[in-house]
Amino acid sequence: MYSPENLANNxxxxxxxxxxxxxxxxxxxxxxxNTITRLxxxxxxxxxxxxxxxxxxxxxxxxxxxxxxxxxxxxxxFSSDELLFIEKFRSISKENQDEILHMLNYKYDQYQKxxxxxSSTSGSAKADDAQDLLA
Length: 135
Fold this sequence. Notes:
This protein is an all-alpha fold. It is built from 8 helices and no strands. The chain starts with a helix and ends with a helix.
């Protein structure tokens, strides 16, 4: 669970791991010299300052606030179309999500079966057959 004290400890720990002094870290983040001390005493931090720490320490915000043990978040390689699909998918009801997942799985199974059939015909599939894979 989040607490300013744990945040301060995580910031200190990562600064030490990254071999950067607290003073230098605070300077790079354009924050006051007592920021970490105030966190240790229970004072909350502005979101923009939390982001500054995460960026400077090359870690996730979830790690800093104690919601994850994973220091770095993995970068996704989604295209903009994939991200748009995910956004649209998340905006619909659970019932409709289930229906879309069912249709997607069905279509994917069909695609795999056609692909297997085409590859078993000695690799001499026509360009038209390849286009039919996704039809």
